[in-house]
Design brief:
Helix 2 packs across helix 4. The protein is α/β, with parallel strands linked by helices. About 25% of the residues lie in helices and about 25% in strands. It has 4 helices and 7 strands.
Length: about 160
């Protein structure tokens, strides 16, 4: 289990909770017991523990600080993580600080989004999209209606 944690404000009661980066199950608010959004950062050294060994599906946001579309999609992904609290974990990876992961996932455009379940890649897409589109994409992937695309097409909004 990871010693790292982050704080998340409960969208139901407003209490601040400390949430571990890696744990079994999913986090619940210590006050009202509702599921919390699980939003954490990972890097080359922590990705396996935080994302691949997660017991719930993971949406991975491969981003870069210099990327305008990445800054646009971040709040949309946080909304999706909040809407799907208890069902997904959002893991953010700065590709400039994590070059091994950028190579491993063959990131050609940022943002690149992945959905993993038990470490298995279920789907990927490049480029920014609004929260409703991302929400629908994640739900479709989790329902088994989407499969990985061997050759992804880069969105004009993303770049690398």
């Amino acid at each position: 289990m990871s010693a790292h944690s982050t704080t998340i404000r409960c969208p139901h009661c407003g209490k601040v909770n400390r949430v571990p980066s890696a744990a079994a199950g999913h986090p619940n608010c210590g006050n009202c017991r509702n599921p919390l959004p699980w939003i954490v950062d990972a890097d080359d050294s922590s990705f396996a523990e935080i994302a691949e060994r997660s017991t719930i599906p993971v949406v991975v946001d491969l981003w870069a600080s210099w990327c305008g579309p990445c800054r646009m999609v971040s709040p949309a992904l946080e909304k999706v993580a909040t809407d799907l609290s208890g069902k997904i974990k959002l893991v953010k990876v700065d590709i400039d600080a994590s070059p091994q992961l950028a190579r491993r996932f063959e990131v050609m455009a940022v943002p690149t989004l992945l959905v993993l379940d038990a470490g298995e890649l279920l789907a990927r897409q490049a480029g920014a999209a609004p929260a409703p589109t991302l929400h629908r994409w994640v739900q479709d992937v989790l329902a088994g209606r989407s499969r990985p695309h061997p050759a992804e097409t880069a969105d004009p909004g993303g770049s690398r």
